[in-house]
Amino acid sequence: MNSLNREMIIDGKVIGRQQPVYIIAEMSTNHGGSLTRAKEIIHAAAECGADAIKLQTYTADTLTLNSSLPHFQLTDGLWAGQSLYELYEKVAMPWEWHQPLLEEAQKANITLFSSPFDRSAVEFLEQLDVPAYKIASAEIIEVELIEAVAATGKPVIISTGGAAIGDIQRAINIMKAHDNPNLCLLKCTSAYPAPYDSMNLTTIAHLAQWSGCPVGLSDHSLGISVPVTAVALGACVIEKHFMLDKSHDTADQAFSLDPSEFAQMVQSVRQAAMAIGQVDYPSTTRMQRAIYAKCDMPAGTILSRENIRTARPGGTIAPRHFNDLLGRVLRQNIKAGECLRWEMI
């Protein structure tokens, strides 16, 4: 395989530059340890207009070591004051929830897939036959993980936050080596929340041209302005963290959207995509002028400034031909207000 596909399909929906923007609601830790809330999030995401809901499949042991050494401790940011192991153990979604959540997504008519974080998670998700895989930004250097998802032959979405161009190329090479051309890359800034001046959204167009595959945005900024801007710059996928209520205390609360905000983002993204349209220079509009008869005129009348003029709305003969008509003779009778046509002269 020499190249990646410019479009790919997840659960019947085509993803690509000329297709409707594919919108992913990231549940992440916002289930808050409640299966009931997780199911409610799925239905809320569907009602907001998301195309997909995404989970994360890991355990504390698959991500880190249970160690008290200093470099395993979080000392700043949203999650300061605990170790990596403590954080992941607290927020991880139980694997036995995946099947009932998949069934709930089917009821809600929304696609569900997940981000695995090691081979065991891929094997587990394959048993559930999820339709696609998402690789988190930090895992783009995890070669065995990318090999595992590439080998499934299913569409793969990879976030690029913190990745050098060589890391992205390596991931692409792995996809090609497994003869899997269905890759989408997401521009991402790995900060939580991400400052606006760190987004560098012009990277989207460069990444799309360089890779030849669909490119989108995984967004951790506040609000909805960055996703809308990203769509204007060519993003064909938007991923945004989603929660039921901002009052819920979750690890991702600070940079997640609630249903009202998410629905507004979906609407704004759809409107931005429609407004982009295509290259178009319309030849005429009704707000332009044409040449009209100022009065009733019989055949044989010589046209002059006294009996013709330009006026709205636009019509057959454009104003630039006004001087060409002066001194010409009518072939037929015309009435006042009639729009001149060449066959009349």
UniProtKB/TrEMBL annotation:
GO molecular function: N-acylneuraminate-9-phosphate synthase activity
GO BP terms: carbohydrate biosynthetic process
CDD domains assigned to the protein according to its UniProt record, in alphabetical order: SAF_NeuB_like (cd11615)
Domain AFP-like: residue ranges: 290-345
Gene3D superfamilies: Aldolase class I, Antifreeze-like/N-acetylneuraminic acid synthase C-terminal domain
Listed NCBIfam families: PseI
Name recorded for this polypeptide: N-acetylneuraminate synthase
Source species of the chain: Celerinatantimonas diazotrophica
Organism taxonomic ancestry: Bacteria, Pseudomonadati, Pseudomonadota, Gammaproteobacteria, Celerinatantimonadaceae
